[in-house]
Amino acid sequence: MSTIVLLALTGLGLGALYFLIASGLSLIFGLADVLNFAHGLFLAVGAYGTWWAAGHLPGAGASGAGFWLAVLFGVAAGALAGVLVELVLIRPLYARPIEQVLVTVGLGLAGVALLRAVWGSDPRQFPKPSWAAGTTGVLGAQVPNDRFLLIGAAAVVLVALLAFLRRTRYGLVVRAGVEDRAMVAALGINVRVAFTLVFAIGGAAAALAGALGGVYFGNVTPGQGGSLLIFAFIVVVIGGMGSVPGSAVAAVLVGLVQQFANYYTGAGVGEASVVLLLAAVLLARPAGLAGRTA
């Protein structure tokens, strides 16, 4: 029983990490119709920004309020990166999807190379609060506290995104733009501002994933964002392109399947099981769990 509880909570923690990355991807594709292959760079910016701030920003550190100040710095850096990418690179290419893919793939590769040039390829030990390094007993299992940190952060982000989409003016513009972008523009609403805002939100969520993922893994590397981005894309496709709640459900499924398959079969089987899950969902429901079928 304790093993199942540990695997379940670890799977939920990993799924929470995937959701933090996938939520921004889902919003960006749903509104702007952009497959952002540089999204992993936002995660890396958040991770390295938090790591740097913990050691250099006055008041920041690896414990207490200092840790959250470092995380806030990393999230702000990720949001800024998202805005700059949208304004400088994506905005001129909205009607050119092939160029979008080439530019974002190139940016992702260049960003990793830049991080390696500045801080090297070796993993950097990530600041980890003492409480996150501890464990909590749940039904006989000693569960690392960083799992609860990820689950709590993902729940807060999910609620905040749903509140933004359903209760705010720009949220309504985003939802309407997902349904019919041309009609929203014809009504005189500046959809471009919503585009930039969505990129900022996506960059901030991915940066938060980078910061908390550093706590989960214990270190940060330049290529970490790229490896996690693969699973985030799988989550977005399974959940339904443009659906935040669908991404949340898909992230839970992917995290649980990966953890249980890796434990009960062998290393690497969990990743293959996730691909099989993707194939099964697409065969049964090509638009994803929450995607539109019409």
From TrEMBL:
Family membership noted in the UniProt record: Belongs to the binding-protein-dependent transport system permease family. LivHM subfamily.
Protein name (Swiss-Prot/TrEMBL): Branched-chain amino acid ABC transporter permease
Membrane topology qualifier: Multi-pass membrane protein
Organism annotation: Actinomadura parmotrematis
The entry's keywords: Amino-acid transport, Cell membrane, Membrane, Transmembrane, Transmembrane helix, Transport
A Pfam short name: BPD_transp_2
InterPro entries named among the record's database cross-references: ABC_transp_permease, BCAA_transport_permease
Positions of transmembrane segments: 6-27, 34-54, 66-89, 101-119, 148-165, 193-217, 229-256, 263-284
Places the protein is found: Cell membrane
Superkingdom, natural source: Bacteria
